[in-house]
Amino acid sequence: MPVVSHNLTVSFNNCSTSTFYSRFAFRNPNQYVEFRQFPRIYCAKKAKRTGKLRYPSEKKKLREKKQTKSDAPTRLEGVWRISRLAVSVQDDPGKDFWDISEPLLKEIAKILEFPVSSMLPPEAFTVVRKSFDARKLQKEPKFVYTVDMDVHKLLHVEPRTWEFISELEPKNGCLEFLHFDKTFGDISSIIRECQKIKESATSAEVVHSNHITGSEHFSATRKPKVVVVGSGPSGLFASLVLAEVGADVTLVERGEAVEQRGRDIGALIVRRMLQVESNFCFGEGGAGTWSDGKLVTRTGRNNSSVLTVLNTLVNFGAPRCILVDGKPHLGTDRLIPLLKNFRHYLQELGVTIRFGMRMDDLLVNGETVSGVKISDSKGSFDSSSQKLGCDAIVLAVGHSARDTYQMLLSHNVNVVHKDFAVGLRVEHPQELINDIQYSGLANEVQCGRGKVPVADYQVARYVKGTDTSILSNMEPVTRSCYSFCMCPGGQVVLTSTDPSELCINGMSFSRRSSRWANAALVVNVSSKDFEDLNLTGPLAGVEFQRTFERKAAMMGGGDFVVPVQTVTDFLDNRLLVTSVPPSSYRLGVKPANLHELYPLHITEALQRAISMFNEELPGFISSSALLHGVETRTSSPIQITRRSDTWESTSLKGLYPVGEGAGYAGGIVSAAVDGMHAGFAVARNLGIYDSSLDSVVGKAQSVGFVKY
Description:
Pfam families: FAD-depend_C (PF21688), FAD_binding_3 (PF01494). It comes from Salvia splendens (Scarlet sage). One of its GO terms (molecular function) is FAD binding. InterPro entries: FAD-bd (IPR002938), FAD-binding_protein (IPR028348), FAD-depend_C (IPR049516). This protein is of the alpha+beta class. The chain is about 30% helix and about 25% strand. The strands form seven sheets. Strands 18, 19, 20, 21, 22, 23, 24 and 25 form an eight-stranded mixed sheet that branches. Strands 12-11-10-16-27 form a five-stranded parallel sheet, covered by helices on one side. A hairpin with an 8-residue loop joins strand 7 (about 125-135) and strand 8 (about 140-150). The radius of gyration is 31 Å and the shape is globular.
């Protein structure tokens, strides 16, 4: 009888004790050895995971198994995605080449196990992703591709590949059948195509579609009025969506259009004249206009919403390579003409754009907003005040709109402080970063005109330290320290919005040809840090920022001069170097004790992190590396709470807080995605949109979850 214990089945296979020992002969016939035959042990049948308990890999295999029969005929018509195609730097045409090269065809043939690469027509393949891998773990730096193969086009150009393609099977991680070529267009094209489909439907279906939204409705002669406050990425994309679906949109921006904004920034750099409403933070395009123009996001490059945003940017003048580049960026010189095209298109749709107009107050009727009060941002508060009535307000202000936060509190809008990060901006010679990252390939950079990209870096570490407050009882605190907004071939710029405060950021142009590389080195701070300075309330984070921005201004001595310190001196808590290395900051620098700027626990966290970064990037600690103070506006210090179903403020109906200033994004792409979905949410609540595009542009993430 079998004996079962702990899911194991033991079987003696009818073996008696007399035959429990066996004799085996060796080469010498006179030699024998007795071998004890142990019972065989069988594992019980493993219980299969079902439903939601299955691992993602198991779900994928199950889908592939179910689709095997149905895929057979379509595999001669669909698209195969080929990944992990590596081409050496010597063989690749370079970072600015986005087509199919001969060395790439050879790598494709290897993955497909196709005997003759020259038989594969290049026009049947499309590069969907290209990145540069210079990690030290690799034998050599290489370009890594992801390519789509159009089977129909391949068979049309080279019919002799039919038999080979018909027998092609997926390979885990490098070859996948997509069934169809799913392409994403810009948001305007997607909305128009959807409208054409709806127009072809019967009138009864249209009435039913409008009825099920459960929202307010407007007659054909009266469009719903929406005021969008702020012309950053979230405000622009919200305006675009609302205008396309038929709303009457007014876009209010406290700053100036990019043409005048550029002149105001020039006056700041040359004559130290700060326009408090038109500067590096305020104006058309938001704070990201004069930046590196990074288009990376943690939301995911293959996310439907992200692809829709990127295609929309291409439609307004961005180069198509941003759809392919592994680390896409635009640069200020490309962002300015793009924003002009965006503005002109909005005006063609009927959007009214009011530059140089600041929103001073909300008009509230009960618990619902009914409009805004605006005034000339260059004039006094009471002069030229105007009231704009509306059905909804999209609040898309940036993270520096501190007066707006204060105004919201006066209306009892629920505003909560949130964690963010502060620190210093470090600047190295770009050649040094090239040498650290590329070693022998550093000469291939050629100031952004060579075969390989200008070297960058991204570092992050968890640092354990102690809090200095009495209440903490010296409990160990773990903080995340990381590089932020790294600008290769860039420069350090002033982002102050008040003459008595000093804060900085980085920017670069599309070619990234500057002699310097800069990045913020920041450490996360929370309510505990605010309380240590006796700062409480919803705007405690704002006051925390102000405290150190004013201290930095005093260290610099005024006139927007930035306090600096070499990395080596910062680590040694001293100021021996009075003749500092050259800086890209154009308003002047002054040696200062930056190690005394922040509280001790923040300074020590930064010092430990820099030492850790040097282990990953040998040479990062250098006498030519210069720290600049202060970097405080890495993200919004507050969050304006909103409902998950309607996207409205939890305090006022009709108010839609979106983007980075509201605490729901961080960066150009994530802010644009949030603004786009907010536009659809507003339109849905106003009864002019029925969620029919969710399957195309993707569903919005939970409004309580921020993923930059």
